[in-house]
Design goal:
Length: 161
């Protein structure tokens, strides 16, 4: 059985971040291209003061990220997650997202967590659903990557769920 943990990002995690963002489907998950070790260090540093991000570990190896950002005055935060391709399909993203949600409700006192995924990403939908986030509908043409517009499905989880 794999031990899944969450911990603060550290500068020495930069090689894991750099490897993660080499995956074509993760490249768009960073606010800028992460192609050098310095970019990876910058990505880690960018989380300071921008929300709460945690390195996801499987047997003490960094395999992903979960975060809650855009916390507003209504007790609502925005959840994001990713897992490197070689760690997918093992329930890691689901476990990490559940743990993040519990932390956000218990430690940060949030009431509502939201997330969204492109409708052409059924794996992310499964993660959201299995982590207790209920579908709330489709937002048409919400995202644009490479000149192509994508619909997204919004999900939410309440502290009372």
């Amino acid at each position: 059985m794999v031990h899944i943990g969450l911990r603060e990002w550290r500068e020495d995690d930069a090689p894991a971040v750099l490897r993660a963002f080499q995956s074509p489907d993760l490249r768009d998950q960073a606010p800028w291209p992460v192609v050098t070790p310095q970019d990876a260090v910058g990505w880690i540093a960018s989380w300071h003061g921008a929300g709460h991000a945690f390195a996801v570990t499987a047997d003490d190896q960094v395999v992903g990220n979960v975060a809650v950002t855009k916390i507003d005055g209504h007790g609502t935060g925005w959840v994001s997650y990713w897992v490197v391709p070689e760690a997918r399909g093992r329930g890691i993203a689901v476990a990490a997202t559940r743990r993040l949600a519990r932390w956000a409700f218990d430690e940060r006192g949030l009431f509502r967590l939201e997330l969204a995924h492109r409708t052409n990403n059924p794996a992310s939908c499964r993660v959201a659903t299995l982590a207790g986030f209920r579908s709330e509908g489709i937002e048409r043409g919400k995202l644009c990557y490479g000149g192509v517009r994508y619909d997204v499905e919004r999900h939410a989880r309440l502290a009372t769920d």
